[in-house]
Design brief:
This protein has about 450 residues and is mainly β. Helices cover about 10% and strands about 45% of the residues. It has five helices and 28 strands. The strands form five sheets. The protein has a nine-stranded antiparallel beta sheet with strand order 13-14-15-16-26-23-22-19-20. Strands 1, 3, 4, 7, 27 and 28 form a six-stranded antiparallel beta sheet that branches. Strands 8-9-10-11-12 form a five-stranded antiparallel beta sheet, with no helix packed on it. A hairpin with a 4-residue loop joins strand 22 and strand 23. Bound molecules: calcium ion (2 copies). One calcium ion binds near residues 288, 292 and 293. One calcium ion (CA) binds near residues 286, 290 and 338.
Length: about 450
């Protein structure tokens, strides 16, 4: 008797699981469902699946990139294939989704999460028209040679530079976002303040050599990816070179989701063991940093809200107040929000895997150690100092880092944390995926 009950329970579970949702893409034989976390507000979110993720989920070998279909509910989702080399840099395309290639798309988070169905094992399909086309303005020779606008976000990107070491404005903001506006409000413009660009990173100030001009390397329905390169960046101590590196940055602007991403790839030789990779920036929150603003940081397994209680005058009278400072962050993110002007920025700087590794290997001197300090300033901006201390620089010859900047409106702290978990994901956080299903043929029974 018990066995029969178990059998029917099992049958019910399998039957209920398989193909309860209608098969939306008859041209594809298989699909896999991707589940998003529940959040308290509807919001677009940027998602990236690697070829390795796809293989792990489905066991399906090397599909053609143009043979996928993506649906969330009844809505077909546009996607973009980005073929990458094993180190992450753009590869010569072969049309197949290899382990290191990326499938990039935007889905919607909501109170009642709607799963995304990724259909595969079919013939090439027509691309889904994009929701919004970016506006791209190139002005060769200009101080900001490339502007990209999409979905309320406008950014300016530059490489360039002149003679190293001089205080020329052209020697600042190389390989960086030097202009950023969100919903018509300018948050960054390095032309009015030379030090304000995103991020103040390696070789982007006056010490670096001339960078390449921005080059669009991926341009699809989902995002525009721009490459900027710095050849032979060198640092000397006592007239001896201690670091020589090649830097490539990929700066991405998503079109249907207010998100920017920075990927940094550095190949180098160095004799130094201690090194600091800088990624700091300053930004106003809303029109300026004031009592309408709040900082949200990860603390004790949840988002912790740290309101700015001081007025503009009080901040000016007592600047440089530390709001958040740690060498051991629980999760790699924080967010600024202006609750009156309904604007803000979340900054994701480290994924969960290295953080978990640091916590598991109890050590006072981990090889990579983020140092984060967020504080008020006498200016209308908040200062966000981040550097990654690398104590094993000479043991490696390559360094790779990924950062994401998400423009905010009035998202709850929990929603912001959920978006971080989707970006920083490790198994058990963010996405979950059902077993792959095969399309039933006509006459085939459940
Ligand atoms: Ca490929
Ligand atoms: Ca403000």
């Amino acid at each position: 008797m018990k066995k029969t009950v178990l059998f029917f329970l099992l049958l019910g579970w399998v039957g209920g699981y398989c193909q309860d949702e209608p098969w939306q893409e008859p041209g594809c034989l298989r699909r896999v469902a991707i589940h998003l976390p529940e959040v308290d507000q509807s919001r677009p979110v940027s998602l990236i699946i690697t070829g390795y993720d796809f293989w792990r989920w489905t066991g399906f070998p090397r599909p053609r990139i143009n043979s996928f279909r993506l649906f969330q509910g009844d809505t077909p989702l546009a996607y973009q294939g980005e073929e990458r080399q094993p180190d992450g840099l753009p590869a010569s395309p072969d049309g197949f989704l290899d382990d290191t290639d990326l499938l990039v798309f935007v889905a919607t988070l909501s109170r009642k999460p709607v799963p995304i169905y990724l259909y595969y094992d079919g013939l090439p399909t027509q691309p889904v028209p994009p929701g919004c086309q970016p506006e791209i303005i190139e002005k060769k020779g200009d101080i900001i040679p490339l502007f990209i606008s999409a979905g309320g976000v406008k950014v300016g990107i530059r490489g360039g530079g002149t003679v190293p070491g001089t205080q020329d404005i052209r020697n600042f903001g190389r390989g960086s976002f030097v202009f950023l506006s969100w919903k018509g409000q300018t948050l960054l413009d390095f032309r009015s303040s030379w030090g304000n660009y995103l991020p103040r990173g390696l070789a982007s100030g006056k010490d670096g050599p001339v960078w390449s001009e921005p080059e669009i390397v991926f341009s699809g329905p989902v995002r525009t990816v721009v490459a900027v390169r710095c050849h032979r960046y060198s640092v000397s101590k006592d007239n001896q070179p201690i670091f020589t590196g090649e830097i490539v940055r990929l700066l991405s602007v998503w079109h249907n989701c207010p998100t920017l991403e920075l990927e940094e790839y550095v190949s180098y030789q160095s004799t130094e063991f201690d090194w600091s990779w800088p990624y700091s920036f300053s930004l106003p929150v809303g029109k300026s940093l004031d009592e309408n603003d709040r900082l949200i940081v990860p603390l004790a397994g949840q988002p912790y809200v740290r309101p700015v209680t001081k007025t503009r005058q009080e901040i000016q009278a007592n600047p440089w107040e530390r709001l958040y400072s740690t060498e051991n962050p629980e999760e790699g993110w924080f967010a600024w929000q202006d609750t009156q002007e309904k604007t803000g920025l979340a900054f994701f700087y480290e994924k969960l895997e290295p953080i978990r590794q640091r916590h598991v290997w109890v050590t006072y001197r981990p090889a990579l150690h983020p140092q984060i300090l967020v504080r008020t300033t006498p200016y209308p901006t908040g200062e966000n100092n981040l550097s990654i201390l690398d104590r094993a620089l000479a043991c490696r010859s390559h360094y790779r880092r990924q950062l994401q900047y998400v423009l905010l409106t009035d998202e709850s702290p929990e929603t912001i944390r959920a978006i971080y978990h989707l970006w920083a994901r490790i198994p058990g956080t963010g996405l979950s995926v059902s077993l792959a299903e095969k399309q039933r043929q006509i006459g085939e029974k459940k």
